[in-house]
TrEMBL record:
Belongs to the FAD-dependent oxidoreductase family. Residues 324-391 form the NADH-rubredoxin oxidoreductase C-terminal domain. Signal peptide: none annotated. It comes from Hydrocarboniclastica marina. Keywords: FAD, Flavoprotein. This is NAD(P)/FAD-dependent oxidoreductase. Residues 3-282 form the FAD/NAD(P)-binding domain. GO terms for molecular function: oxidoreductase activity. The keyword Flavoprotein applies. Its cofactor is FAD.
């Protein structure tokens, strides 16, 4: 029986396993998945609600041990892959085991960035990316009273809100002019800032950290304007970078990520990569949804081709599509998809009810919806996203578009 090995056991790797099982792949291949974290795949997207105490640890799990056993999948947890031997077709593990493969999938994901600032080695300074980081934050939060979160993107704001719910005084530092500047325009960003401030967060835009101060553990942070903020915890949520060390050491073609074609094939025809560790046509991926779509493509390819494919396989390749995002903070509704900043080729359709605090900014190009921002009431988000993906001609519903699907369907 041939052997498929998957290195990395996050959400995308688990989705690939599920699709392979559905296609009957595991009846003909011996499948092994290797994860360095102590637990098998879990829902990393829900770490913020877990940190806030809104869900239990068991609810994070994507599959129980019996699932892997039932489908003949060998699941290795808490044992990192440290080397890929392409010539010998094996993966070396931290405990010395060699796991042979006929085909290999690299799904190592990405790692959180820790900036090279003075004081980042102090106790109480960390990133927020995985279950281990979450557990460390929970442990520290039992005695800490204040925290600084660096980064006003989705992950930073969710972590900040969760820590505030745990009773900490939290300050968020964001270097851009408004929160979620990659997903929201200035108006929606301002609305979000006011609402989060009402929840008790101290939000400071156009702020940069220069150093973290303390003896053995963090005591304060020094800002670029010379001011200081007392803090017993500092959490960085300032971006990620693909984990490509294994692939680079194995001699695979890498740039910022592991280079793949539309069928997720690397420069070695027996090795594939998907999710946040890969790069296609210069694009890397920081959300789980593209990885899910890549898993569908790769499951089809692995199932329908008996030999290492050359040329264009008989299954559709992966294509980049518009992405939609939501914020996971209780009481705040927002949705964003596609383009968020108008330019000379676009028009803006705006609905703003200041009393209800509802805001919609739709961006149109050539009678096609190409982007949408919703704040306050995000229920119509999936419908707008569907119009963006389909490239719907909105010329006949243009005057009703900002009011949502019911108005457009009645037009």
């Amino acid at each position: 029986m041939k052997k498929l090995v998957i290195v990395g056991h996050g959400m995308v790797a688990q989705r690939l396993l599920e699709r392979l099982v559905e296609r009957g792949f595991c009846a003909h291949w011996q499948v092994t998945v290797i994860g360095e974290e102590p637990q098998p795949a879990y829902n990393r997207i829900m770490l913020s609600p877990f940190l806030a105490g809104e869900m239990a640890a068991d609810d994070l799990s994507l599959a129980g041990a019996d699932w892997y056993a039932a489908h003949g999948v060998r699941c290795i947890s808490g044992n990192a892959a440290i080397v890929i031997d392409r010539g010998g077709r094996s993966v070396g593990l931290a405990d010395g085991e060699q796991v042979p493969f006929d085909r290999l999938v690299i799904a190592t994901g990405a790692q959180a960035l820790m900036p090279g600032l003075p004081g980042t080695g102090l106790e109480g300074v960390q990133v927020f990316r995985d279950r281990g980081h979450c557990d460390a934050l929970l442990s520290c939060a039992q005695s800490a009273t204040s925290a600084v979160v660096v980064g006003g993107g989705f992950l930073g704001l969710e972590a900040a809100a969760a820590l505030a719910k745990r009773g900490l005084k939290v300050t968020v530092l964001h270097r851009s002019g408004h929160l979620l500047n990659r997903q929201l325009d200035r108006t929606a960003g301002g609305m979000l800032q006011r609402e989060l401030a009402q929840q008790g967060l101290d939000l400071r835009c156009n702020s940069q950290i220069q150093a973290i101060e303390g003896q053995d553990r963090v005591e304060s942070v020094l800002l670029n304007d010379g001011s200081r903020i007392k803090a017993e915890q500092v959490v960085f949520a300032t971006g990620i970078k693909p984990r490509i060390d294994l692939a680079t050491a194995a001699g695979l073609a890498c740039d910022r990520g592991i280079e793949v074609d539309p069928w997720l094939r690397t420069s070695d025809s027996n090795i594939f990569a998907l999710g946040e560790c890969c790069q296609r046509a210069g694009q890397t991926y920081g959300l789980v949804e593209p990885g899910y779509r890549q898993a569908e493509v790769l499951a089809a390819l692995l199932t329908e081709s008996n030999d290492a494919p050359d040329g264009a396989p008989g299954v559709p390749g992966y294509q980049d599509e518009a992405l939609a995002t939501r914020l996971k903070i209780s009481g705040i509704e927002l949705f964003s998809c596609g383009e968020i900043e108008p330019d000379d080729s676009t028009e803006s359709l705006v609905y703003h009810d200041q009393e209800l605090r509802h805001y919609r900014h739709l961006i149109v190009r050539n009678q096609r919806l190409v982007g949408a921002i919703l704040y306050g009431d995000a229920r119509e988000g999936p419908w707008y996203f569907d119009q963006v993906q389909k490239g719907t001609d909105i010329s006949t519903i243009r005057q009703h578009l900002a009011f949502g699907s019911a108005w457009c369907e009645a037009a």
